[in-house]
Amino acid sequence: MNRHPLVGWLLLAPSLLLLGGLVLFPIVYNVWLSLHDKHAFMPVQSFVGFKHYVYFAHDEEFWSSVRYGLIYAGATLVLQLLLGISAALLLNEAFRGRNLLRGVVLFPYMIPTIVAVILWKWLLNDSYGLVNHLLMTAGLVRVPVAWLGKDHIMWSLVLTSVWQFFPFVVVTFLARLQTIPPELYEAAKVDGAGAWRRLLHVTLPQTRNVLFVIILLRSIFMFTKFDTVWLMAGEGGVSRYVRTLPVYAYARSFTYLQAGMGATLAVMMFLLLLVATAVYFRLFRDEALA
Amino acid sequence: MKRALALYAGGLVLLAIGAFPLVWMLSTALKPSGEIFATPPTLIPHAMTLENFGRLFTETNFLTYFGNSVLVSLATVLLTLVVSSMGAYALTRFTFAGRERVAGLILMTYMFAPIMIIIPFYILVKQLGIVNTRLALVLSYTTFCLPFCLWLLRSFFQSIPLELEEAALVDGADLRRAVFYVVLPLALPGVIASGIFTFILAWNDFLFALVLITSEELKTLPVGVNDLFNATIVDWGMIMAAGVVITVPTIAFFVAVQRYLIQGWGAGGVKG
């Protein structure tokens, strides 16, 4: 029987080649780029050291992109958790049609971003959108609201993103809920705990670890989200009211063609995430270790 | 009774959140242009028509985009499954120095969002001379699906007892036959799950397609439809029709395989 280590390496070689060549090498190359002035297409480059880093530290647009990113990631995170956890708690109960509903809830997460975006742009359209029609019929607003205008674009983006990504929370949270032993709830019931107290004293402690992971992953995913943000606001017009860090990095590299500066923003994005993750692990050490 | 009522009320709200926007998309796609802008709006079109789909298929490059998306997604699924099965098999059935460290390193690459390396990635692809090719897309998607698929398949392979494989070998099968007739069938749910994950990622991707593809005849659906959307005054009926056509394969694919997926997990001698 041939289980020679060499055969093992050979089988692993395509994976290592792809990951090494197309992920690890670009990571290193990215750091190198961030220390250079480089045009996105032309082979012109010159070493500039930390010049770009210093530049962005004083760049108002960089700080505003961090601020927009925090608002976007924070708001979508909180709303995804609220909606996702409520939905998971509901789908953990026994009722007819539950399995169908478990499937339907996944739809928003599976459809392409472009579909989610054009769909919500249509629903939120100021003249013909369903949302404005319903609000006006209900008498909540008197004139149509420009949901995609500069005053509301951030919240329209948050709404679209929450709709698109809350199923992730549903699936992961529900998977953990299903493994909580029913005896724990029985015991709490015997002790006279109502539904609210059972949620607080049984469900919450049991799901702390999975919540730790969900919050970590969703924060990182939302802070680095590019396509939904870019598609929702485009490049001109209202885009500067939702220009998060990933969109800013993209614009520097592919609109202004400053690959070096774009790479710098990517490194800074990574460093910000690294620091935030370290702080998060420190703050919630118990959950991280469990 | 009150409890049941509350459950169904909640279920209805959730159904509306999950499905109503998609129903509205379908409804708009089936309306003639006059009815799309009617007040009050109609949920079920009075004069149902397929003219939006007709315009989409004949007056735009939609079918080209669709063909490209199908080709790229299927090629990605195939390549990813082959490469990751080989890799995961090596990580579970062969012992060599540094094996666990390699597995850890692979997981680490999963932490990098594409946007963080898209710039060097683009320059690299350009230097390799494959910018603006479908191959570049297939390689990008395969690479970004690999860490997840490798880890998923690895856990499936680990759960298959080595004895089953050895029994086949004792019976005279060579290693290749043992893998194809014993290991892969038992790991089928994992293979299918990896396939779904990969297909959805490739089918939905916007960033790589935006950066790596420039010619019209090579564009995939997300970028192509975004171009249609930005082209002129928005033709909402046609855009919603495009949305419907892009969504159908994803949902059909998932619904078709989901039953199989659950069955696979329930049946068989594998505990995962």
Layout of secondary structure:
The complex is a heterodimer of chains A (290) and B (272).
Chain A: H1 5-34, E1 36-38, E2 45-47, H2 51-57, H3 60-91, H4 98-104, H5 107-110, H6 113-123, H7 130-137, H8 153-177, H9 182-190, H10 195-223, H11 227-233, H12 245-255, H13 259-283, H14 285-289
Antiparallel strand pairs in A: 1-2
Helix pairs in contact in A: 1-13, 3-8, 3-10, 3-12, 6-11, 8-10, 8-11, 12-13
Chain B: H1 2-29, H2 33-36, H3 51-59, H4 62-93, H5 99-109, H6 114-127, H7 134-159, H8 162-170, H9 175-186, H10 188-204, H11 207-212, H12 221-231, H13 236-266
Structural write-up:
The complex is a heterodimer of chains A (290) and B (272). Chain A has 290 residues and is mainly α. Chain A has one domain (53-289): MetI-like (MetI-like fold, Orthogonal Bundle), CATH 1.10.3720. Chain A is built from 14 helices and 2 strands. Chain A has helices at 5-34, 51-57, 60-91, 98-104, 107-110, 113-123, 130-137, 153-177, 182-190, 195-223, 227-233, 245-255, 259-283, 285-289, and strands at 36-38, 45-47. Chain A has a two-stranded antiparallel ribbon. The longest helix of chain A has 32 residues, at 60-91. The mean pLDDT of chain A is 92. Chain B is mainly α. Chain B folds into 2 domains: 1-49, no CATH class; 60-266, MetI-like (MetI-like fold). Chain B has 13 helices and no strands. Chain B has helices at residues 2-29, 33-36, 51-59, 62-93, 99-109, 114-127, 134-159, 162-170, 175-186, 188-204, 207-212, 221-231, 236-266. In chain B, helix 1 (2-29) packs across helix 13. The radius of gyration of chain B is 23 Å and the shape is globular. At the A-B interface, helix 1, helix 3, helix 4, helix 5 and helix 6 of A face helix 1, helix 4, helix 5, helix 6 and helix 7 of B.
